[in-house]
């Protein structure tokens, strides 16, 4: 498995610092959700972990090596990345999209092979995409398209998947479809997954580990029961909420009932 962590990273766009001096470790073989309000740095952190954004300071480490020092092809063999709202050329089929996941394994001396065919076929089968593999992506439902993109990441045969808001713009049924697929991959394949999610209840239901960000710093990190608390919801999201437990799996679920006025002094309650 690939070990992924950050050491005191600072991330910025132009002169605007989004995250400062942040250290975080991703548990191997588990599902981790990054949660927090809009603009807190969730997607920025994920982009840095995926080597799509270079830190101004600090280091992202992949198996103990600075990710910025590794060749792009080597990183792509270890990390599969599903960006927010991914785009593909018009007319591309689900099978052709999945095949793109094999590009990191190609070289001048190693062209398309039977092992590539097997990897793509397996990715299509695992994600349930095989039945519509030869249809164009723009003819598929939202959930089917997300599964096709996940198939591409699986075809890379990486140990870890990084997903930026994989359920955004999907209805309830398609959200469930994607999250159940990720849970199956984790259980059956041992796949490490890190995802940015806005739906706190889904994050708690499907994750082993949660990271709550507030204004670019870690407010809390741990199991869903440790992170999903009334204090966290009050301080991070500015809402009063009751915490109940899912009758099926016991995960904490929040029921917001009052919006609060955000108080900057609450920052002192965060843990770094």
UniProtKB/TrEMBL annotation:
SUPFAM superfamilies, per database record: P-loop containing nucleoside triphosphate hydrolases
Keywords on record: ATP-binding, Cell membrane, Ion transport, Iron, Iron transport, Membrane, Nucleotide-binding, Transport
Membrane-spanning residues: none
UniProt-listed GO biological process terms: iron ion transport
Subcellular location: Cell membrane
Stored SMART domains: AAA (SM00382)
Molecular function per GO: ATP binding; ATP hydrolysis activity
A GO cellular component entry from the record: plasma membrane
Pfam families (UniProt xref): ABC_tran
Membrane topology: Peripheral membrane protein
Residue span of region Disordered: 248-272
InterPro entries given in the database record: AAA+_ATPase, ABC_transporter-like_ATP-bd, ABC_transporter-like_CS, P-loop_NTPase, Siderophore_ABC-ATPase
ABC transporter domain span: 4-240
UniProt-listed PANTHER family: IRON(3+)-HYDROXAMATE IMPORT ATP-BINDING PROTEIN FHUC (PTHR42771:SF2)
Designated name of the protein: Iron complex transport system ATP-binding protein
Taxonomic source organism: Saccharopolyspora flava
């Amino acid at each position: 498995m690939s070990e992924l962590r950050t050491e005191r990273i600072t991330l910025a766009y132009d002169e605007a610092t989004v995250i400062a001096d942040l250290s975080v470790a991703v548990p191997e073989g588990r599902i981790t959700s990054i949660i927090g309000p809009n603009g807190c740095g969730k997607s920025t952190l994920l982009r840095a972990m995926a080597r799509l954004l270079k830190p101004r300071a600090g280091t992202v480490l992949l198996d103990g090596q600075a990710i910025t020092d590794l060749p792009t092809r080597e990183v792509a063999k270890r990390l599969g990345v599903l960006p927010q709202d991914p785009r593909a050329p018009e007319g591309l089929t689900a099978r052709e999209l999945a095949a793109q996941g094999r590009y990191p394994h190609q070289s001048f001396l190693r062209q398309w092979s039977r092992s590539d065919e097997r990897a793509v076929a397996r990715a299509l089968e695992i994600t349930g995409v095989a039945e519509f593999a030869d249809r164009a992506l723009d003819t598929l439902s939202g959930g089917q398209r997300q599964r096709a993109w996940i198939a591409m990441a699986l075809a890379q045969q990486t140990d870890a998947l990084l997903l930026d808001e994989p359920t955004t713009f999907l209805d309830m049924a398609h959200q469930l479809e994607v999250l159940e697929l990720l849970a199956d991959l984790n259980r059956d394949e041992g796949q490490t997954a890190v995802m940015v999610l806005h739906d706190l209840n889904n994050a708690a239901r499907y994750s082993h580990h949660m990271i709550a960000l507030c204004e670019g710093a870690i407010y809390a990190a741990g199991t869903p029961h440790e992170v999903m608390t009334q204090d966290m919801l009050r301080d991070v999201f500015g809402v009063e909420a009751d915490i109940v437990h899912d009758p099926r799996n016991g995960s904490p679920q929040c029921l917001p009932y009052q919006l609060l006025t955000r108080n900057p002094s609450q920052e002192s309650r965060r843990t770094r």
